[in-house]
Amino acid sequence: MMNSETNNSRFSSVYDCTIIELDKHHHEKGNITVVENNITIPFGTKRVYYLYDIPGGESRGAHAHKELSQLVIAASGSFDVILDDGKERKIFSLNRSYYGLYVPKGLWRQMENFSTNALALIVASTTYNAEDYIYDYEEFLKHK
Predict the structure, then answer these.
(1) Locate the Sugar 3,4-ketoisomerase QdtA cupin domain: which residues (predicted)?
(2) Residues facing residue 50 across a β-bridge
(3) Among 9, 22, 87, 130, which residue is least crowded by beta carbons within 10 Å?
(4) The domain spanning residue 97 has which CATH number?
(5) 3 part of a folded domain
(6) What is the per-residue pLDDT for 97?
(7) Average pLDDT value for the chain
């Protein structure tokens, strides 16, 4: 089981992010991968969504969350996740459906370099709340 989440988003760092190898159950008819609350990932799931049909050259994200943590999975294709904690930046390249990137609350995130037909699956710790988003990078730095 993973350690519990960082309590204060102001202290989250890019070094708190990690690639999690998800359980891959092989079967001759196809594989299955399972994500379980507070076992595979260090939070309970409140929302799941996915990004698809992203035109070449486009990026997604460019925001931070005060409370929401995520697991980002390249369910199909590949893309990069750029994370920033206000002091350091780190880039994670995702291209396997059985790897997920744990992103704790309080980090600036952006996704780019989507391959053709990429599918980004996002497992989120909270339901949608517009007040949780920080869209301005300078405001993000003040929050940190």
Answers:
(1) 16-143
(2) 121
(3) 130
(4) 2.60.120.10
(5) no
(6) 95
(7) 92
Report the distance separating Cα 95 and Cα 115, nearest Å: 9
Residue position matching structure tokens 């940190």: 144
pLDDT at 77: 95
Mean per-residue pLDDT for 42-51? 95
**What's the mean pLDDT in 96-118?**
96
For the chain, what is the total number of helices (H) and then of strands (E)?
A: 1, 12
* 30 domain residue, yes or no: yes
Domain-located, residue 36 = yes
Q: Which two tokens stand for residue 80?
A: 């990069």
Q: What is the pTM of this model?
A: 0.88
Distance between CA atoms of residues 72 and 56, nearest Å: 20
| CA of residue 64 relative to chain centroid, distance | 11
Overall number of domains in the chain: 1
Residue linked to tokens 């206000």 = 86
Tally the residues of the chain: 144
- CA gap 144, 42 in Å, rounded: 22
Half-sphere exposure of 67 (CA within 13 A, CB side): 10
Q: Which of 27, 63, 65, 143 is catalytic?
A: 63
Our answer to whether residue 143 is catalytic in this structure is: no
What are 63-72's pLDDT values in tens digits? 999 999 999 9
